[in-house]
Write a structure and sequence with these properties.
Length: 362
């Protein structure tokens, strides 16, 4: 089998050219466009986001209470799908704000001139690692990747503690994983594996071998987070790799989910927010970005939907206990997000063509 380098040289895949959004049926796009065109007199603010219904409903209700003249409308989709959709709408943008996703995808949007600079007032109160070039995007939250499991099926002591433990033969056929083609979280995890290989050997081959072993453990790659949750609940697999906030939200609803912060380190996604070039209501969009990063917005997201705040000035006693627990156990993987932004699309295409479904054959 040819390796990544040979395949890359042969294919010459340009970033983003291989992916087309498949998660949103065409009729849904038409209905959404029709809804955006309607008006009840309020100013529409359209947000594309992978953050999920819980956070987006919370944002909608809270922001509209603060600004009754605004009608916040959101569309929930994978972060790769947001990028693909914003690209496809370049000539006639339909959204004002991109809310959520890893910096590697925002970087690609910035390179394609899809974003407009805006430096929010809270930018200086966050880590530099969450600042995009030329003020084109900023992190709103930090999102660690975790190993999650059905806590009715596994005890905490039995659950894998690190990435390598997931490859133990006992877990063969016990993993269900979100399809990584549309998922920024899964791209970050797979990117971590490939970058570890590059640091250790100077080549990606060991990383893709690891991903083939993971593929052999995987029972199914699922279409969206809701399906992932249901399969874990029904024990159609007892393990997954996913993002911490989603697992904590589902656990707060009574679902039997536990998690591990990998002991060797884990990608911590700088979950971005940005103005979309050509958005119809840029001033209202700026108000929304200001609210997301405000103390009130950050604390609300931490308390209600388990988002790890990006602000460094929030009083410790105002934060929920889970934040301190996670920060104490979190080992941050040294990720090269710019490299992931440049090479991630090609890595994922190679994985899709040469690794997916082939692990069991090795």
């Amino acid at each position: 089998m040819e390796g990544w380098k040979e395949w890359k040289d042969r294919m010459r895949v340009s970033a983003g050219s291989e992916y087309r959004s498949i998660l949103l049926p065409f009729h849904l796009s038409i209905l959404f466009a029709a809804a955006v065109s309607c008006s009840d007199g309020r100013t529409p603010l359209v947000v594309y986001s992978p953050h999920g219904r819980d956070l987006l409903l919370l944002a909608e209700r809270t922001f509209e209470t603060l600004y009754p003249d605004v009608d916040l409308r959101w569309l929930d989709m994978g972060s790769q799908d947001v990028l693909d959709r914003v690209r496809s709408e370049r000539v006639n943008p339909q959204a004002d704000v991109w809310f959520g996703g890893p910096s590697s995808l925002f970087q690609r949007a910035a390179e394609d001139s899809l974003l407009v600079p805006y430096r929010p007032s809270w930018a200086a109160l966050t880590h530099e690692r969450g600042h995009g070039p030329n003020d084109l995007y900023f992190a709103a939250y930090e999102t660690p990747a975790v190993i999650a499991y059905n806590s009715d099926a596994l005890s905490d002591s039995d659950a894998p503690r690190d990435w390598e433990d997931v490859l133990d033969p006992r877990w063969r056929g016990e993993l269900v994983i979100r399809d990584p083609i549309a998922s920024g979280t899964m791209r970050a995890i797979f990117g971590m594996v490939v970058q570890r290989s590059l640091r250790a050997t100077g080549d990606t081959a060991a990383g893709f071998r690891w991903l083939r072993r993971l593929d052999a453990q995987t029972r199914e790659y699922v279409f969206n987070p809701a399906m992932l949750h249901q399969k874990l609940i029904r024990r159609e697999g007892v393990l997954t790799l996913w993002d911490l906030p989603d697992i904590l939200v589902e656990r707060s609803k009574g679902q039997p989910f536990g998690f591990r912060l990998p002991t060797s380190g884990t990608p911590v996604i700088q979950d971005g927010i940005a103005l979309i070039r050509g958005g119809r209501t840029p001033e209202v969009a700026k108000r929304f970005i200001e609210w997301v990063g405000s103390p009130e917005g950050q604390l609300l997201a931490a308390r209600e939907v388990f988002r790890l705040p990006v602000r460094l000035d929030l009083p410790h006693d105002s934060l929920p206990d889970w934040v301190s627990t996670v920060r104490a156990a979190l080992v941050v993987e040294p990720m090269d997000w710019e490299l992931l932004g440049r090479e991630g699309a090609g890595w994922m295409t190679y994985w899709d063509r040469h690794v997916r479904g082939r692990g069991a054959r090795q």
